[in-house]
Write a structure and sequence with these properties.
InterPro entries: CheY-like_superfamily (IPR011006), NreC/VraR/RcsB-like_REC (IPR058245), Sig_transdc_resp-reg_C-effctor (IPR016032), Sig_transdc_resp-reg_receiver (IPR001789), Tscrpt_reg_LuxR_C (IPR000792), WalR-like (IPR039420). The protein has ten helices and six strands, in the order E-H-E-H-E-H-E-H-E-H-E-H-H-H-H-H. With 218 residues, it is of the alpha/beta class. Helix 3 links the parallel strand 3 and strand 4.
Length: 218
């Protein structure tokens, strides 16, 4: 895996590079600004980019804008976005556009090395990794029309885990139920949310996250 890191905090940037290299991952470049990041993507053609949401000069959405531009230039680029806290506007904007090869994690998750590496590999492999706290806050918002209220508590649990990027087996293990029960819950979720079911987990997550992202425009 060839990785570019875009992070303006030098301690976190170098810490991430050391961590990933210790895991035998190839960090081909690091950047402390959006311009450096885009230049590094152009020069090195990485498989995966780890990008901070807030970067110079204004520390608002430069990282998100750069990530979107990098994906425009290199559509198969996997992007793992890091944020100090849940920024719902940025999260829903990213996720509503499609969740394939995309991750959104809080920076505190980096300290949980095993979880961070699992998320990184999932995103690089073409999947999705959404921080549980991001999912929780998006779910709490819900739709103004109360559509989420149609779901049972267990279906909401399954929906949240789907949105994190977990497959049926992992969801069953997390909730201590059978895979058959998970499949039934997922079928009910799509019926209640008027969303067509798909066999591939990433498409399923994309549909759920697009639904959640609709709250921003209502």
């Amino acid at each position: 895996m060839r990785i570019v890191i875009a992070e303006d905090d030098p301690l976190l940037r170098e810490g991430l590079a050391l961590l990933l290299r210790a895991e035998s991952l190839d960090v081909v470049a690091t950047a402390n600004s959006p311009e450096q990041f885009l230049a590094a993507v152009e020069a090195h053609q990485p498989d995966t980019a780890i990008v901070d949401v807030r970067m110079p000069p204004t520390h608002t959405d430069e990282g998100i804008v750069a990530a979107v531009e990098a994906r425009r230039r290199q559509p198969d680029l996997a992007v793992l976005v890091l944020s100090a806290y849940v920024e719902q506007a940025f999260a829903t904007e990213l996720l509503a556009a499609g969740a394939v090869r995309l991750g959104y994690l809080l920076k505190e998750r980096v300290g949980r090395v095993d979880e961070f590496l699992i998320a990184l590999h999932r995103v690089a492999g073409g999947g999705t990794a959404i921080d549980p706290e991001v999912v929780r806050q998006l779910l709490v918002r819900g739709r103004p029309d109360g559509t989420l209220a149609r779901l049972s508590p267990r279906e909401r649990d399954v929906l949240a885990l789907m949105a994190e990027g977990l497959g049926n087996t992992a969801i069953a293990e997390r909730l201590f139920v059978t895979e058959g029960a998970v499949h039934k819950h997922i079928r009910n979720i799509f019926v209640k949310l008027d969303l067509p079911p798909h066999d591939r987990a990433d498409r399923r997550v994309t549909a759920v996250l697009r639904y959640l992202g609709d709250t921003r425009s209502r």
